Amino acid sequence: xxxxxxxxxxxxxxxxxxxxxxxxxxxxxxxxxxxxxxxxxxxxxxxxxxxxxxxxxxxxxxxxxxxxxxxxxxxxxxxxxxxxxxxxxxxxxxxxxxxxxxxxxxxx
Length: 108
Description:
MtlR-like; MtlR-like_sf; Mannitol operon repressor
């Protein structure tokens, strides 16, 4: 089986391109239309961000805007509201979380 399938999935094989694989699994009914559209949107976003030369944080509008269009995301939570007395502490925590997200979702 590996002998027959592996050449199909190689970079120069007919299924080497991720978008072709995605269309195939959608056509076979493995994923539904909404999942297909979400995957297409994420691949387009990745392509766009990788080619514009800028660095992005997960919380940037260039990321959050397209994420709001995903079918799998019902709604993004509102931004955190800080109490004046706790603002420094909360901002430090939020900054640490943001840095972790940036490390995992870095686009460059």
